[in-house]
Amino acid sequence: MHEYSIVQALIDQCEELAVTNKASSITKVVVKIGKYSGVEPHLLQIAFETFKDQTVCKHAEFVMSIQPLVIICSDCQQESVLDQPHYICPACESHSIRVTDGEDMMLMSLEMEA
Ligand SMILES: [Zn+2]
């Protein structure tokens, strides 16, 4: 499953950050998941619960924040939040848009203890 490899990479990243910050455990992991990132939040949660046991994240709460699609129009410079992946500027109907958010997944913050 796609989500398993994402979680393994995420936990690796958490372990590195824990070492850097001399923390013994991570208590909270906050991730942002783009609505159109291709990541299924429910599966990601299951994958996290499955893999966290032997890691620095074993007591961590997993918090997901779902990020809608955000675009900026190259013609009218309007920034818009889209409910559907239509990739058209709602203000002027231009197709010259740039996606600025909602298509990726990233680690937003960690809480840890020494
Ligand atoms: Zn526009």
Give a concise summary:
This protein has 114 residues and is of the alpha+beta class.
What compounds are bound to the protein?
A: zinc ion
CATH class: Alpha Beta
Q: What is the typical, i.e. mean, pLDDT?
A: 95
Number of strands: 6
Number of helices: 2
CATH topology (fold) name: hypothetical protein PF0899 fold
How far the N terminus sits from the C terminus, by CA atoms, comes to 33 Å
Shape verdict: elongated
Output the helix-strand order.
HEHEEEEE
Spatially, the strands of the biggest sheet line up as 2-1-6
In terms of per-residue confidence, which ranges show pLDDT below 50 for 5 or more consecutive residues? none
Assign the CATH architecture.
Answer: 2-Layer Sandwich
Task: Describe what this molecule looks like in 3D.
The protein has 114 residues and is of the alpha+beta class. It has one domain: 2-Layer Sandwich (hypothetical protein PF0899 fold). The protein is 26% helix and 35% strand. The chain is built from two helices and six strands, in the order αβαβββββ. The strands form two sheets. Strands 2-1-6 form a three-stranded mixed beta sheet. α2 links the parallel β1 and β2. The protein is elongated, with a radius of gyration of 17 Å. Zinc ion (ZN) binds next to loops. The site of zinc ion has 8 residues, from loops.
